[in-house]
Amino acid sequence: QVQLVESGGGLVQAGGSLRLSCAASGRTFRTYTMAWFRQAPGKERDFVAVISRSGLSTHYADSVKGRFAISRDNAKNTVYLQMNSLKPEDTAVYYCGADHTIVLHTTTYEYDYWGQGTQVTVSS
Fold first, then answer.
1. 3-state secondary structure of 105
2. 46-67 pLDDT, tens per residue?
3. Which of 20, 3, 18 lies closest to 77 in space, CA to CA?
4. Are 33 and 22 spatial neighbours (Cβ–Cβ below 8 Å)?
5. Of 112, 118, 88, nearest to 20 (Cα)?
6. Most CB atoms closer than 10 Å: which of 14, 96, 103, 105?
């Protein structure tokens, strides 16, 4: 069992930056592939970024490539999402997910555990 808690969301102007954190419980964090997804009002939960167990491999949605960076610190049981050059269309609730496989999945149903989400609002 893994419990995930996101933090770091907030209100920011377009062009600004935010850093999200997702803290995981338990001693098995390093065995999980971790990802960030986001969900805007009235829309489905969409893939944002994923990182391998070691942190050496990452993959991003085209919409955030070059602006967002995912990283992890296995010693701190935490995964991060650095978001730069934010746009109003980045406004959403951001969720982190944990997947026990090694594949860098981009679909929600592959993920075993989810956090409660953190709101990110980008004003124009």
1. coil
2. 999 999 999 999 999 999 999 9
3. 3
4. no
5. 118
6. 96
C-beta atoms surrounding 79 within 10 Å: 30
Closest by CA to 21, choosing from 98, 81, 86, is 81
Q: Copy the structure tokens of residue 106.
A: 């981009």
Rounded-to-integer distance, Cα 35 and Cα 57, Å: 12
| Neighbouring residues of 94: CB distance < 8 A, sequence distance ≥ 6 | 6, 9, 20, 36, 37, 38, 48, 81, 117, 118, 119, 120
pLDDT tens digits for range 2-59:
999 999 999 999 999 999 999 999 879 999 999 999 999 999 999 999 999 999 999 9
> Whats the size of the chain, residue-wise?
124
